[in-house]
Write a structure and sequence with these properties.
Layout lengths: L1 E5 L2 E3 L5 E8 L8 E6 L6 E6 L5 E3 L8 E6 L4 E6 L8 E7 L2 E2 L3 E5 L2
Parallel strand pairs: 2-11
Antiparallel strand pairs: 1-3, 3-8, 4-5, 4-9, 5-6, 7-8, 9-10, 9-11
Length: 111
């Protein structure tokens, strides 16, 4: 089983990034996909989820209207489109399906 996040990096405030979560070793289409983020010294926070049928829910108020989760079951991949990024979005971003976690991708928002 593997979940591999990518697409992070350094971006200026107001910029956009599209994170990917490529999965393998299990039936991705059977699982809810969730996105989380963590800042050093704090707990991991739940951002959003996407059901197997593509229904989405944003849990984190500060990203509503800016972050859009999605998935492509045919590609075994989840996505998190992040727009109008703010410095406070700086964190390590993780995807999770069932009990399986990725290793994270770093997002840094700075001018």
């Amino acid at each position: 089983v593997a979940l591999v996040e990518s697409g992070g990096g350094l971006v200026q405030p107001g910029g956009s990034l599209n994170l990917s979560c490529v999965t393998s070793g299990f039936v991705f289409a059977n699982y809810i996909l969730t996105w989380h983020r963590q800042v050093p010294g704090t707990g991991r926070e739940l951002i959003a989820r996407v059901t197997p049928t593509g229904d989405t829910l944003i849990y984190m108020d500060s990203v509503k209207g800016r972050f859009i989760p999605s998935r492509d079951n045919a590609l075994n991949t989840g996505y998190l489109q992040m727009n109008n990024l703010l410095p406070e979005d700086t964190a390590t971003y993780y995807c999770k399906a069932g009990i399986f976690w990725g290793r994270g991708t770093q997002v840094t928002v700075s001018s």
